[in-house]
Specification:
Number of strands: 8
CATH topology of one domain: Tetrahydropterin Synthase, Chain A
CATH architecture of one domain: 2-Layer Sandwich
Helix content: 40-55%
Shape: rod-shaped
Number of helices: 9
Oligomer: single chain
Largest sheet: 3 strands, antiparallel
Order of helices and strands: HHEEEEEEEHHHHEHHH
Strand order of the largest sheet: 3-2-5
Length: 266
């Protein structure tokens, strides 16, 4: 077929070569997750091509393939000095996608490199304005703030930043020891407060019990006998000290003194 075409058509070889070049360089297949930004004689076409089979003009059209999937990249560890003068290293991860392929090619030279550099500078700027405690306890708020700043600045590039996550915070060893001591002191403080509150509540209840027992002498005596019974039934060798009322001692002393005087009179 090719020999017949070349033999009977003047300049068949030249036409065949042109057709072959057109088929090789003019037919492109764009994947579902890609879009093709085509420049025709240096001027961008109004709409991106794809997905599927597309045809461009060889040597006249130039096509750039743009990935429109969700992309991620790690922000390298950045040296940050917080507002309370703590030096640490922080890295993050950024999730973004190209929503306008034309702008990602026209407005910025390399959108991946530009977004990466912008993420690094934004990370240092935002985290340098907060204290260490805020960085450790309010990470979700800081992530949302970073995402808003990056999304606002990359919008003109046709890029949508969907999420930013602070991934790791490297603290100096001295700061780790100081934080451990602080946490231990805080736990001891809470333990002492709880113990003091328990003593206060116990003293209050004992005071109420003493008032109730003081209303009737019989109840106090019964409570004393009950305590003696509980101690007598306990096992083990130990020294037990019983409180003895001083007024009873006085009464016994008077009784003993009266008995001695009677004996002397006799």
């Amino acid at each position: 077929m090719i020999d017949f075409f070349i033999s009977f058509i003047p300049g068949g070889w030249f036409i065949f070569i042109l057709v072959f070049i057109f088929l090789v360089n003019g037919i492109k297949i764009i994947n579902q997750y890609e879009r093709g930004v085509v420049f025709r004689l240096g001027k961008v076409m109004a709409e991106p091509y794809g997905p599927g089979l597309v045809i461009i003009i060889p040597f006249i059209d130039k096509m750039h393939r743009i990935d429109v999937r969700m992309l991620t990249f790690d922000v390298p560890s950045q040296d940050i000095i917080t507002r309370d003068n703590v030096t640490l290293k922080v890295n993050a991860v950024v999730y973004f996608k190209v929503v306008e392929p034309l702008k990602s090619v026209i407005e910025v030279e390399n959108y991946m490199f530009a977004t990466s550099q912008l993420a690094q500078t934004t990370l240092r700027s935002v985290l340098g304005q907060v204290e260490l405690d805020e960085l450790l306890s309010q990470r979700e708020t800081l992530n949302h703030k970073l995402q808003q700043i990056l999304d606002m600045q990359t919008l003109s590039w046709g890029i949508k930043v969907s999420n930013v996550e602070v991934k790791q915070i490297d603290l100096p060893p001295d700061m780790q020891r100081a934080m451990a001591q602080q946490a231990e002191a805080e736990r001891e403080r809470r333990a002492k407060i709880i113990a003091a509150e328990g003593e206060h509540q116990a003293a209050t209840q004992l005071s109420l019990a003493a008032e109730e027992l003081g209303k009737n002498n019989i109840s106090l005596a019964l409570r004393y006998l009950q305590t003696l019974k509980e101690v007598s039934t306990s096992q083990g060798n130990s020294t037990i000290v019983f409180p003895f009322p001083t007024d009873l001692m006085g009464a016994l002393a008077e009784l003993a003194g009266g008995s001695r005087s009677k004996s002397a009179n006799k």
